[in-house]
Each structure stands twice: as C-alpha cells, then as structure tokens.
Amino acid sequence: MDDASLLTGGLGLVVVLFLFVLALLWFLLPFAVFGIKDLLKELIRETRATREVLQATRTEATAARELRPVGPPPPGGTARRVGERVEPTFGEILDRDRTS
Q1: Is 46 a domain residue?
Q2: How many domains does the structure of the chain reveal?
Q3: From CA 80, how far away is CA 74, in angstroms rounded?
Q4: How many Cβ atoms sit within 10 Å of the Cβ of residue 65?
Q5: What is the pLDDT, as a whole number, of residue 41?
Q6: In a domain, 39, yes or no
Q7: CA distance 1 to 80
Q8: 3-state secondary structure string, 14-35?
Q9: Which domain holds residue 46?
Q10: DSSP state at residue 81
Q11: Per the domain annotation, does 43 fall within a domain?
Q12: Cα–Cα distance measured from residue 10 to residue 18, given in angstroms and rounded to the nearest whole number
C-alpha cells in the first residue's frame, strides 16, 4: 500500500477532520487569550479589594476582642468588654425579685 491510499478511506476523513478542527482552534487561540486578559485583570483587582476588606474586618474583630474595662467592675463580677451584653446573674435576679 502506498501513502496516498491511506488518506482516501474512512481513516483519511477522520485525519482531515481532526486537522481541520486543530487548525481552527489554533487560529482562534490568540483571540481567546487576549479576550481573557481584561477579565483576569478585573478578577485580580476584585481579589485585592476583597483582601483589603477582609484585613479591615480582621483588624476590627481583633480590636473588639481586647478587654477594655467600662468602669469599675460590678459587685461580685468582673470587668466587661465594651459593647458586651450585660446579663444579670442568678443572684441579682433573686435579689431583685425579693426587693420587689
């Protein structure tokens, strides 16, 4: 068999179609790369902005966890954090009910 007879049958058709698709994809590749560049730049910008927001949130959360006494500690209690809900103790509730 010679080389010309290999490309005339069904195998030849498959090879030609494969080469055509490969050539088409190779032609379109630069357009896809340059089209994606702007999208990637925008994605990088958004990622940096998100990182800045997360860093600011982390800083605020760290500052909120620090103990900063509001004033003198309540009787029989300890200093509370700024913004922390003040829940009465069980003893305070009983004392309040007894005096009412």
Answers
A1: yes
A2: 1
A3: 9
A4: 8
A5: 92
A6: yes
A7: 93
A8: HHHHHHHHHHHHHHHHHHHHHH
A9: 24-66
A10: -
A11: yes
A12: 12
Is residue 63 within 8 Å of residue 55, measured between CB atoms?
no
Given the structure tokens 């500052």, which residue do they identify? 63
Rounded distance between C-alpha atoms, residue 81 and residue 68, angstroms: 6
Amino acid code (one letter) for 2: D
40-96, pLDDT tens digit by residue?
999 999 999 999 999 998 888 777 766 555 556 556 655 555 556 667 777 787 888
Q: Which residue has the tokens 């600011």?
A: 56
Phi and psi, residue 28, nearest 5°: -85, -15
In single-letter form, the type of residue at position 8 comes to T
Q: What confidence category does residue 97 fall into, taking pLDDT thresholds of 50, 70 and 90?
A: confident
Q: Tell me the residue type at 33.
A: V
Structure tokens at 93: 């509730």
Structure token pair of residue 4:
């010309």
97, part of any domain:
no
